[in-house]
Amino acid sequence: MEKSNVEHARTCVYNVNYHIVWSVKYREAVLKGGIDEELKNIFIQIAAEKGFTIHTIEVMSDHTHIFVSAHPKVAPSYIVKMLKGISGRLLMMKYPELKQQLWKGSLWNSSFYLETVGSVSEEAVQKYIERQKTRG
């Protein structure tokens, strides 16, 4: 584990990271023409307000990828809920034409992909745990 990735909190030391992906409803290619940059700014603002850190954002025309870190008490579903809910509402208000393109529905598909990301491989962790009994 790299020291630079480790965060210190009052009751724990952690390195909790997620790769999150979700798409626009109906996979419509609407995240372009400035909307993509606005969306990135909204995500950064939401993260700052809600207490998690976005390291990388890539907005494609019909989906988004985010690499985020958070305290262990912050559930990944909460992160997704905040990012999708707030950004969808704000973009629909600022760009009313999105409502027409998406048949007056919501901006985001209801599902998402989530993967935990660590600086140590699964195999390395398993070997480390297996070796603990023989150390003592």
Reconstruct the topology from this structure.
Layout: E1 7-8, E2 13-14, E3 17-23, H1 35-50, E4 52-59, E5 63-70, H2 76-94, H3 97-101, E6 113-117, H4 122-135
Antiparallel strand pairs: 1-2, 3-5, 3-6, 4-5
Helix pairs in contact: 1-2
**Main sheet strand line-up:** 4-5-3-6
The overall number of domains is 1
Unreliable stretches covering 5 or more consecutive residues: none
Q: Approximately how much helix is present in the residues?
A: 25-40%
Whole-angstrom Rg? 18 Å
Write the element-wise H/E pattern from the N-terminal end onward.
EEEHEEHHEH
Strand fraction: 15-25%
Distance between the termini: 22 Å
Number of strands: 6
* Mean pLDDT figure: 92
* Derived structural class: alpha+beta
Please identify which CATH superfamily we are dealing with: Transposase IS200-like
The CATH architecture name reads 2-Layer Sandwich
CATH class: Alpha Beta
CATH topology: Alpha-Beta Plaits
Number of helices: 4
Biggest pleated sheet: 4 strands, antiparallel
Shape: elongated
Notes on the protein architecture:
The protein is of the alpha+beta class and 136 residues long. It has one domain (3-135): Alpha-Beta Plaits (2-Layer Sandwich). The chain is 40% helix and 24% strand. The protein has helices spanning 35-50, 76-94, 97-101, 122-135; strands spanning 7-8, 13-14, 17-23, 52-59, 63-70, 113-117. The chain has a 4-stranded antiparallel beta sheet, covered by helices on one side. Helix 1 packs across helix 2. The two termini are 22 Å apart.
